[in-house]
Amino acid sequence: VQLVESGGDLVQPGGSLRLSCAASGFSFWRYSMNWVRQAPGKEREFVAGISSDGSTNYGGSVKGRFTISRDNDKNMVYLQMNSLKPEDTAVYYCWAVWTAKDYWGQGTQVTVSS
Description:
Elements: E1 2-6, E2 10-11, E3 17-24, E4 32-38, E5 45-50, E6 56-58, E7 66-71, E8 76-81, E9 90-98, E10 101-104, E11 108-112
Parallel strand pairs: 2-11
Antiparallel strand pairs: 1-3, 3-8, 4-5, 4-9, 5-6, 7-8, 9-10, 9-11
């Protein structure tokens, strides 16, 4: 099983980034796919999730700015992040969940700074 995130970068406030997560080794289509972030010295925070049927939900701090999507043909999940703020700075993790099983990626760093 692998979850490999990419797309993290240094970006100025107000900018945009698109994160990608490539999944392999499990039945991707069954799983709810999520993005979770962790800032230095803080606990992990739920960012966004998309279920197997495509329904989405978002953490309150990103609602209206971030959009999660998935491509079951490519086993990919994406996070489009717009209007980025310094407080969005964190390591972003891809997290796959189905019943009692879950898998995590290694994370990708997003830094929002001028």
